[in-house]
């Protein structure tokens, strides 16, 4: 046998090996995540429900989905274990601000555009520029000529007799 005929089979076997290896790694990571569940941690089920772990058993997990709502799920139904910040942001809408000391952008931009007291000539020049700005389209002689030409073409088309179903140009 030639080496070139064996090459596609070797590549196919190698690709299958790599795909199964990656799948096994993901399954192992998911199993480790489910085994490390602790009461009090926030989780997302594979169905998309967010809840807090109340009790962990060998194959099941008791979840607290709300006041007085306890649900029993299989461990395999846990899709992700969330951090406290992420769980609070999603479920309760609480944003944890890591940069509380940083400057906060104001709701309006007026404080960002105010001129400094030392830059009064530049502020006066900017104010005079605001008055001179015109965003409207000004008609030029060319634009007016183009419009007149279009109107005459429409008028000529209206003057020609219109054809009915039975009329044709061919004789």
Mean pLDDT level:
76
Which stretches of 5+ consecutive residues score pLDDT under 50? none
- SS field, number of helical segments: 5
Range of helix content: 40-55%
Query: Could you give the order of strands across the largest sheet?
Result: 4-3-2-1-5
Round the Cα radius of gyration to an integer and report it: 37 Å
Major sheet description: 5 strands, antiparallel
SS strand fraction:
15-25%
Instruction: Estimate the global geometry from the Cα principal axes.
Output: extended
Quick take:
With 171 residues, this protein is α+β, with helices and mostly antiparallel strands.
List keywords for this structure.
single chain, 171 residues, alpha+beta, five-stranded antiparallel β-sheet, 5 helices, extended
Topology:
Blueprint: H1 3-35, E1 42-45, E2 50-56, E3 60-66, E4 69-74, E5 78-82, H2 84-92, H3 110-113, H4 120-132, H5 141-159
Antiparallel strand pairs: 1-2, 1-5, 2-3, 3-4
Describe, in plain words, how this protein is organized in 3D.
The chain is of the alpha+beta class and 171 residues long. The chain has five helices and five strands. The chain has helices spanning 3-35, 84-92, 110-113, 120-132, 141-159; strands at 42-45, 50-56, 60-66, 69-74, 78-82. A hairpin with a 3-residue loop joins β2 (50-56) and β3. It is extended.
């Amino acid at each position: 046998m030639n080496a070139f005929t064996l090459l596609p089979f070797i590549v196919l076997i190698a690709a299958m090996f790599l795909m199964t290896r990656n799948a096994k790694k993901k399954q192992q990571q998911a199993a480790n995540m489910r085994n490390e569940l602790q009461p009090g941690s926030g989780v997302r089920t594979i169905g998309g429900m967010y809840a807090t772990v109340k009790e962990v058993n060998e194959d099941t997990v008791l979840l607290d989905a709300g006041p007085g709502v306890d649900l029993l799920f299989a461990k395999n139904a846990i899709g992700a274990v969330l951090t406290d910040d992420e769980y609070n942001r999603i479920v309760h809408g609480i944003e944890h601000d890591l940069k509380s000391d940083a400057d906060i952008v104001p709701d309006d931009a007026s404080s960002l555009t105010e001129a400094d007291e030392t830059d009064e000539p530049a502020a006066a020049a900017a104010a005079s520029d605001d008055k001179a700005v015109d965003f409207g389209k000004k008609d030029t002689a060319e634009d007016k000529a183009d419009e007149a030409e279009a109107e005459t073409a429409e008028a000529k088309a209206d003057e020609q007799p219109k054809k009915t179903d039975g009329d044709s140009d061919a004789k």
